[in-house]
Amino acid sequence: MYRHWLIGLVRTRSGRLVGTLGGVALTVAFVTCLSAFLQSSAAEMTARSIAQVPLDWQVQLLPGADGGAVEAAIRSAAPVAALQPVGYADVPGFEANTGGTVQTTGGGTVLGIDASYLSRFPAQVRSLLGSVEGVLVAQQTAANLHVSLSDEVVIHRRQAPDVSVTIAGIVELLNADALFQAIGVPAGAAPQAPPDNVLLLPMAQWQQLFDPQLGGRPDTLRSEFHVKLDHHDLPSDPLAASTAASERGHNFEARVAGAALLANNLAARLEAVREDTLYARLVFLFLGAPGVILAVLLTLAVAGAGRDRRRRDQALLRLRGATVDTVLRLAAVEAAVAGIGGAVLGIFLGALAGYLILGVALLRSETVALLATVAGAGVALSLAAILIPTWRDARGSTVAAARRSIGKHRTPLWSRGYVDLVLLVLAAAFYWRSAASGYQIVLAPEGVAATAVDYTAFLPPVLLWSGLALLAVRLVGVGLQHGRSVIARGLRPVAGSLADIIAATFGRQGPRLTAGVGLAALAFAFATSTAVFNATYEAQARVDAELTNGADVTVTGTSAEPASRALDRLSKLPGVLAVQPMQHRYAYVGTDLQDLYGIDPTRIGTATPMSDAYFANGAARATLADLARTPDGVLVSQETVNDYQLNRGDSINLRLQNVADHQYHMVSFHIVGVVREFPTAPKDSFLVANATYVAQQTGSAGSEIVLIRSNDDPARAARTVRSSIADLPALKVSQIGDAVALIGSSLTAIDLAGLTRLELIFALVMLAASGGLVLGLGLADRERSFAILVALGAKPRQLGAFVWSEAGLVVGGGMLFGLLAGMLIAYVLVKLLTGVFDPPPEALSVPWGYLAVLVITATSAALLAATSEAMRSQAHVIEKLRGE
């Protein structure tokens, strides 16, 4: 019996069976891809974070410790890839006599390193000028002392005579915060600032110079081991990797208790990544959950499109003696075939999409449990879509009632309870709560490794998405019941004299039509919100990259070798649209040494975008105009304003180094505004002033940075720039693509582009299904009604009026409500993720091309379904009237 029933379904009800199978397959494929994305992104976050740790371990030897024993303990506790001893000596200051003047600095630090340190830890020190062997001076110290290659620097030692060394090279300390961190301080303590003045000596020379200081002031010297571990055996999961890294550190600490202190930088970074994984999962839930819900609803809608016919078929079975249990078992056969077939097809489609879109291989042994779970969920979905309605119909209606073509309609429970309005009120309340906290979804207090996540912040978009869709269903339902005259006027261009009749039939078909409009609105809203968020994210990622790198291409020099030396030749290169010099000096605000950037406010925007978000007043043009009108004007950071209780218009005295005597002198400025971000500037404290005024006060008009805007590919433009300044080895060239690879946050560390690309493709498929498949199956379920019209003499054009009008209502209504809802949801999401964007976007970026594709896809699918049904309705009329 079951075999004959199934064969009959395939022969006469193949549309609904294939539709349900396709809905299950789409759901399974989408969930499979999203799950694979979550796993791969977590592994990618772990790998990237490990690669970004410059020093895995810093081991400080305590007084009297045996260095050899500590080194042996390190190698026993963890696999070591590189290990180097480093000496630290605190000194009262440095002194240099250059150009007939004497420059002195405050306290500093002298490091002792082996010759192989730079090659084994390349992320720590970068050579800017000269050799990497011999005495090296940090870039900022070289600027303070105004020294270059072959100049002599006097080191003032504690309780030991001064000693002179000759500079062999100038270097940049890329990770000074980690290099000079305090080891063994209590958890949660604020990090200490690195020293302003640093020299690096070969280890043998360092030991020779500071052994005398060890006897008198041992508290000013310390020794460390810098360790790079072998990461091959670390798990890819952030939680497991964090646990493994911490256990290695605890193992070492147990071996050297009382002999050394450990700074486990790797474990600290992985702990942060473990917390960031929660953020990534939240983003995954918001961006992915609506798609999963939509796919489930689509499956239920496809299965529900044939519910009336299925109910009549089952009533006929009961009329011929079948029991309720038999009817349920037959329905279970249909559900099992659709569920199992859809699950298998969905897994293969998901594996194919995951490989092509995300580059993830899913069909492997590690994913068996995941695929089995998703497949089981697909089968359960099919059973829920078919078996539950069948059980309700069999238990709750008589055979006569089940065979009626038109039944009594009851207002849905959600409509009677105004669930749509409740959801919208809740969305507004949660959004207001997040707005009141400044959209701080992830809270990471300074100096505290743990991260707190506000999980409720992701509720507003989901609640808004659901509430707006239900509101659209309510409004369309009210319109169909009470706005027939308006609908008739709108249908007249398509339906002609039948407009009033069709409008009346819409009122009788309200539940089915409103469900179709609601599903189409959900699909449009999901696709629109995802597309707008993705476009905004991509646009802001470029702004972030320009902020980090400075411009398309940036040339960086030093005070001794300014990049402005090459300004003329750079401006004449092919493809260069604009070139702007920018000074990068240092200035003391009180005792705090800050970066100072000298610019031409009227022209800086030609080489790099000046975003409104860079400035506290949100007005870039007005702020730069104020700076241009005030020769001694300066823009200060918010941190400086808070620390020194400053206000706009206040006079502030800064100490700048003068080129004549290389000493820091007091220079008066007036505050004209507050700057939050600026190209190439650090994230905390910095200053922006007029380059002309800085040049007048310091006696140096050179600019350490040149910003270049090009219409060529940035990488190719950077190669051209490098070739043109090959005779100036002190100048370094970077391009915006390098910055894109370095930009990191909990959201950008995951492959958001892959996720959104996956969702945009599936959104198109779901939109086509909601606009075509559901509509087509709904029309097909009314074949007998259309056959009656044909039998009564309806012409093809008159029959088409019913079909085209219904298609226009479903797709047009869903499009209108969905596009508006999608834009609103995208706005809310971007606002909630303000902390992810750096700087926050000034406005949404709308991908008009993709939205046009959405409209064309939905319209084409609806046209195809309507055309197919209009043609099929005129065939086999007699069989349809007999109830085939």
UniProtKB/TrEMBL annotation:
Protein location: Cell membrane
Record carries keyword Transmembrane helix: yes
Membrane topology: Multi-pass membrane protein
Keyword flag Cell membrane: yes
Domain of life: Bacteria
Primary location class: membrane
GO biological process: lipoprotein localization to outer membrane
Residues covered by the ABC3 transporter permease C-terminal domain: 292-392, 761-867
Keywords tagged on the record: Cell membrane, Membrane, Transmembrane, Transmembrane helix
One GO CC term, this protein: plasma membrane protein complex
TM spans (from-to): 21-38, 278-306, 327-357, 369-392, 413-432, 462-480, 513-533, 760-780, 801-828, 848-866
Annotated signal sequence range: none
Sequence similarity: Belongs to the ABC-4 integral membrane protein family. LolC/E subfamily.
Protein name (Swiss-Prot/TrEMBL): ABC transporter permease
